């Protein structure tokens, strides 16, 4: 299905939660084919891609009128049990299921006020400083980069040189050409980045800074607009990233994401290489070359 880019819809300084719920359900329904869920396919007689509303309602065990109201953005009285049934019918991932619940039942998932300043604990900053040879940083809401160690600066660039509001992964990926060169699989990095922002938007649709970020990126990047229109969501996790560093060449690094127990909006992300690999040697060279030049970036924070 060819999904056309759409501008973000805002309300009261944030994203329109009803519109987000409506578009999310519509795009999830459109990606399913009748044969995917054991229904007959009537081929050319189908006027819309994917499942019809009545087919999805049948699979979820709810009335067509009930599901239609939900897909129109009215999730005020929907129960958790109904959301679970719809999630199963739509074959949602765990992340998509959580996103659906955030959009439909926001009061049950109310977090700390989005206007508060994001702070990194002193002990966590000290931990970053003590990690040798491993690029590590802390991100917060909107994928803002809040703190980092010298190795992260050596690998990704000296974020201390950027204004605080530009220390944001989405801005870097979509607006900084050097990051397109850094990530060998840039398309996947870009897709992941938008999926993370979508998850954040589900939890904090009333965040005006998030809405402003989405609006700016939508204006400045056609690729961001296209990816935002897919309504895909994903949780930060672990995996492998291939990079092409201007000083040490190609690296293959494993990354891990550790969500903080006392502040689930913040995550510690680390990158490491297989012991004895060329990438491990490249990191060692970066550590020896970049320690002095990047020390100023260690522990910096964004507001």
What are the low-pLDDT stretches, counting only 5+ consecutive residues below 50?
A: 1-5, 291-303
**Overall 3D form:** elongated
Rg, rounded, reads: 21 Å
Oligomer kind: single chain
Helix-and-strand structural type: alpha+beta
Please, could you describe this protein's structure?
Helix content is 45%, strand content 12%. The protein is an alpha+beta fold and 303 residues long. A 5-stranded antiparallel beta sheet has the order 4-3-7-6-5. Strand 1 and strand 2 form a beta hairpin. Helix 4 packs across helix 5 and helix 7 crosses helix 13. The longest helix is centred in the middle third of the chain and has 18 residues.
In short:
The chain is α+β, with helices and mostly antiparallel strands and 303 residues long. The chain has 13 helices and seven strands. It has a five-stranded antiparallel beta sheet with strand order 4-3-7-6-5.
Give keywords:
303 residues, alpha+beta, 5-stranded antiparallel beta sheet, 7 strands
What topology emerges from the helices and strands here?
Elements: E1 10-11, E2 14-15, H1 17-30, H2 53-60, H3 64-71, H4 80-89, H5 94-104, H6 122-130, E3 136-139, E4 145-148, H7 150-156, H8 169-175, H9 177-182, H10 186-203, H11 208-220, H12 222-228, E5 238-245, E6 249-259, E7 267-272, H13 278-294
Antiparallel strand pairs: 1-2, 3-4, 3-7, 5-6, 6-7
